[in-house]
């Protein structure tokens, strides 16, 4: 997604762009197609609330900047109770079509395995960097590649879900329309069912790692069995929390835990199990997931999986224009820089594309203010984070400079978050206006 957004932004500025895409000639564990911007994990861009949520603010900033990823996400959105979820196939096909149709964009197939010696380049290799290029990056940076493991959630065919057991409701009835308020299917568990489910998770056969690999998970995408290992109640306070929901079939019974399913395509024929990334072996997955009430006869369009992700120690390797310090003609964008999430990756692509285009046009585009969502992210990965403990990071208000005169603590959170987003919107709008001359073709 970062590469697609970078290409779009540079082309809009009047710069010719070549996208090098190795798929489908060279595949990966997680990707299934050769389309650009393919979603390999969740189909959600998370909260779309641009007043109280940092990722929602990032949505807003990308829309204001004419972001292709957000435009196509909006066009292919699905009801998700206040979140922005998309039909993954329609979304990636639309991104691919729009880029291929642009007169300044050319898409070339084939794998790149070495760092280019000249020109202007953006490396945005998404959730998986190929072995050859990964080795070239490691050799150039002089540092052993950092790695963590990212797990993929399973997808269930809607026709195999027992609608007599599950019910449709978004948590706390979030959403402005009836469709939004019923965007999730909910599978209730009592305490006995929950305890048996946890026992099965802990006992299930898991994927073995190759020699030399270590399971350094990103906390925002933990496999459910790893969460269960951290404590039997962990899932009840995470993806299986029962709050904000009332069982439509038995309203007098409060569930002990709830598994949520979110629509995964526009037809409503596929649902993903929310937060259920897993490294269980396939046979174990079908047995364990069919213990969930309503999924006893579930048929799976895709089972969960696990893959290795690599990222740079960006605070030591990249400057604030996202250029590799040792080879400034090369920029990095997306998850490889140490941001986590579809939106964050796309946002870094947006900035990298604009900065590269400005440089090609003989200008310098400064990073946005750190009080904005994009500015907070780029500041974090290029200098704000502690290099010794650098880990992938989602956008959050903890990355923003503090506000003066605003109440702290939980009671002041609503006003504080509104203060963050109001300040960010004002500064982002000003930054876009000030830098528009650097991208005159817009």
Automatic annotation (TrEMBL):
Q: Does the record carry Membrane as a key word?
A: no
Q: Which domain of life is it from?
A: Bacteria
Where is this protein found?
Cytoplasm
One GO molecular function term of this record is: flavin adenine dinucleotide binding
| Gene Ontology CC terms, in alphabetical order | cytosol
- Cofactor(s) listed in the protein's UniProt record: FAD
Enzyme Commission number(s) = 2.1.1.74
Chemical reaction(s) catalysed: uridine(54) in tRNA + (6R)-5,10-methylene-5,6,7,8-tetrahydrofolate + NADH + H(+) = 5-methyluridine(54) in tRNA + (6S)-5,6,7,8-tetrahydrofolate + NAD(+); uridine(54) in tRNA + (6R)-5,10-methylene-5,6,7,8-tetrahydrofolate + NADPH + H(+) = 5-methyluridine(54) in tRNA + (6S)-5,6,7,8-tetrahydrofolate + NADP(+)
Tell me the GO BP annotations in alphabetical order.
tRNA methylation; tRNA wobble uridine modification
Under the heading InterPro entries, the entry gives: FAD/NAD-bd_sf (IPR036188), MnmG-rel (IPR002218), MnmG-rel_CS (IPR020595), MnmG_N (IPR040131), TrmFO (IPR004417)
Q: Where is the MnmG N-terminal domain?
A: 2-363
Q: Does the keyword Cytoplasm apply?
A: yes
Assigned keywords, A-Z: Cytoplasm, FAD, Flavoprotein, Methyltransferase, NAD, NADP, Transferase, tRNA processing
Which Pfam families does this UniProt record tie to the protein? GIDA
| SUPFAM superfamilies per the UniProt record, alphabetical | FAD/NAD(P)-binding domain (SSF51905)
Q: Which family does it belong to?
A: Belongs to the MnmG family. TrmFO subfamily.
Functional note? Catalyzes the folate-dependent formation of 5-methyl-uridine at position 54 (M-5-U54) in all tRNAs. NAD-binding protein involved in the addition of a carboxymethylaminomethyl (cmnm) group at the wobble position (U34) of certain tRNAs, forming tRNA-cmnm(5)s(2)U34.
Q: Which protein is depicted?
A: Methylenetetrahydrofolate--tRNA-(uracil-5-)-methyltransferase TrmFO
Tell me the organism's taxonomic lineage: Bacteria, Pseudomonadati, Pseudomonadota, Alphaproteobacteria, Rhodobacterales
Gene symbol? trmFO
